Amino acid sequence: MPETITHSKAAAPVLILGAGLMGRLLAVLLARAGHPVRVVDAGGPDGQPSAARVAAAMLAPLAESAITEPCVVAMGQYALPRWQAVVAQLVEPVYLQQNGTLIVWHRQDAHEAQRFAALLAATGLALPSLSPPQALNAARLAELEPALAQRFHQGLYLPDEGQLDNRQLLHALHATLAALGVPLHWDSPWSLEQAQAHQAREGGWVLDCRGLGAQTSWSQLRGVRGEVARLYAPDVTLQRPTRLLHPRYPIYIAPKLDHIFMVGATEIENNDLSPASVRSVLELLSAAYAVHPGFAEARILELCTQCRPTLPDNLPAVRTLAPQVLQINGLYRHGFLISPAVADAVIEYLHQGSTTLAQRLGLRFEHPAHAS
């Protein structure tokens, strides 16, 4: 069960660099805990430079276990009920559902499904508190997701998993910060040195949540490019995120409100922010069509490209760079999945000087030798 965040006896001021998902979430939680919070971001309130704006925002710890470590799965499991609590306290509504995740595959890719199921089984042994996957035959699959009746004959259902609307959430976090009276400085590309100069004058904490913007002070960070299609498909009715297993281009389809679907995502090891490639778009759209032919008449609202901030081991970390200066980074493709867990661990450290929650969830706290 999630832990209750205790209020600091002396609510020190906090300066947050970066107003992507992590920065906004920490700002809301800290402001509600009584801290004077100030947020500085190089972009605008729409989150345009943030990787969080280009995301499906799936909350799927077991599904993600096929490509990540048990610690990320544990953080994702912790975060599921935390998201419910966070969203309930925002001043604007956010689409959030937990209808589970559906995994499907074509008959010729049955070996890929066997490999995937074996990975999920290993995760179940490591984290027995996770709800186990349910094998689906054609009849049960059609009952669970009628839109896929007759299209697939087998599947896996992962209960309890969910998703939210990433852009609604970013907007609602921004509106909540404004309602709380938090000073928000947009189009202000502060360096870490500028933040520390502010800290020297005002005291308190600096939390660096700039993602790839922190590369100048965290050289191990790299970008992993992702490409996502945002579609309007009135002829498609999917009730939950659906993943198609394929040896070359596995994809997810995340249904949002009003027949909007996010289809993604490629992973390319570079910092390239140019528009999506023809090959990537063809693969994404052809795979979506293979899941449901109604996507043939979908309208392409956006082809989105962004780079996810990633550390060498593809795992998140918190680094104490100097007294009361923390860097929070490396959330990779798991930002929405794990950010409440990371935020709670950071707040525990601010309030109590403890990393108990971080240790329990496997979140790495680094203390570089040069930090004093």
Structural features, described:
The chain has ten helices and 18 strands. The chain has helices at 21-32, 61-64, 70-88, 110-126, 138-144, 166-179, 192-202, 278-291, 335-352, 356-361; strands at 14-17, 37-40, 58-59, 96-97, 101-105, 134-137, 154-158, 162-164, 184-185, 205-208, 222-232, 242-245, 251-255, 260-264, 299-310, 317-322, 325-329, 364-366. Strands 6-7-5-12-13-14-11-15 form an eight-stranded mixed beta sheet. It has a seven-stranded mixed beta sheet with strand order 9-2-1-10-17-16-18, with helices on both faces. A three-stranded antiparallel beta sheet has the order 3-8-4. α1 runs parallel beside α6, α1 crosses α9 (335-352) and α3 packs across α9 (335-352). The longest helix has 19 residues, at 70-88. The two termini are 35 Å apart. Residues 1-9 have low confidence and may be disordered.
Give a short synopsis of this structure.
This protein is an alpha/beta fold. It is built from 10 helices and 18 strands.
